[in-house]
């Protein structure tokens, strides 16, 4: 992601976007490998990190560090990931409340 930003934004918002994305991947990986009764906190953190990532991308777009085409190319897949994470989160809450 960083390489797509102007040089002046790479070490600020670009690095933050990369760090947030990597942490999001870590949380999803960890949640996927845990037993069902331990997944919920990791999925909740992943949902929060995804929201934060989308926020940082929007800031990048607003300060014109990302053009419309790149912003859309990144945002659309993140929307799909959000739907999947949201479904996973709702399912885990449902299972937790049913116990």
Describe the model.
This protein is mainly α and 99 residues long. It has one domain (2-98): de novo design (two linked rop proteins). It is 86% helix and 0% strand. The protein is built from three helices and no strands. The protein has helices at residues 7-33, 36-62, 68-98. The model has no long low-confidence stretch (mean pLDDT 89).
Key words describing this protein structure:
99 residues; de novo design (two linked rop proteins)
**How much is the radius of gyration in Å?**
15 Å
Poorly predicted sequence stretches spanning 5 or more consecutive residues: none
Give the strand tally. 0
Distance between the termini: 42 Å
Overall tally of structural domains: 1
Number of helical regions: 3
Secondary structure elements and pairings:
Layout: H1 7-33, H2 36-62, H3 68-98
Entry summary:
This protein has helices at residues 7-33, 36-62, 68-98. The protein is mostly helical and 99 residues long. It has a single domain, classed as de novo design (two linked rop proteins) (Up-down Bundle), CATH 1.20.1440.
